[in-house]
Design brief:
288 residues; alpha/beta; Rossmann fold; Pantoate--beta-alanine Ligase, Chain: A,domain 2; 2 domains; three-stranded antiparallel beta sheet; 9 strands; binds adenosine monophosphate
Length: 288
Amino acid sequence: MTADAGTRPVVARTRAELRDALVGTPGPRGFVPTMGALHDGHVSLLRRARDENATVVMSIFVNPTQFEDATDLAAYPRDLAADLDRARDAGVDVAFVPDVEAVYPHGSSTTIDPGAIARVLEGASRPGHFSGVATVVAILLGLVAPHRAYFGEKDAQQLVIVRRIVRDLALPGEIVGCPTVREPDGLAMSSRNARLAPADRAAATVLHRALLAARDLHGSGTTEADALRAAMRAVVAAEARARLDYASVADPEILEEAQGPQVGPLLLSLAADVGGVRLIDAETIGRP
Ligand code: AMP
């Protein structure tokens, strides 16, 4: 049975409950994995899944293995009642809300190493993060067996890695990348934005401003990767409340830093600390 707006999704908390909830649901099945604390960025993925599939499944699971920092994990916002309201409004049929034991049953020990693409950019600053992401995504895809799974382009490296593991390991589902949803001033929506102090909230637009500066430079004919990186760095350097981690201009599939003049598509991405909150943003430019 398909839930319409007004019907709460069926909540499955164990692998067995999920299996039961999925029996007899019509295909195709769309899947949106999340860590909860849903905002309009998540909702855009849920709505896209609703538009393109007969059954929509989401997961809400704060995956401990992708946090390197126990304080960060403990501080992660959780509000299941509000999330289920949003899921209902977006027309989700089944919400998988497992505890840690349901995802990693006693004795589970397998992890996935996505290779070199997991060790650059975010992976360089967050060792083990993408192994945690890859492993939980593989488990969830195995349990949900979707026809399509939806991921945000804001987390650009995550999207590249998920595409890669699905291809390499022949996991089920076509991976669909979805555009970044932004606040009116350009800040990419993120569950972490709520942790920004008011003065830092204004400064946080610096990531988007840096992307725009590089995109505009590229649009006006500058194709040198170094010049594009320098443009992003200069914007962040001018914002006293922000501390840059990296500004990258890379090949969108292998994530290797681009050198020299560029003709094909480029992934611009950056990470910065703004008032103690680590923020990321990304944009692909030069797509044909
Ligand atoms: P998270 O709950 O942070 O793990 O995010 C769940 C999914 O939502 C991931 O695929 C994210 O890339 C995606 N997402 C998060 N923020 C946004 C946003 N502002 N716009 C589009 N998708 C997003």
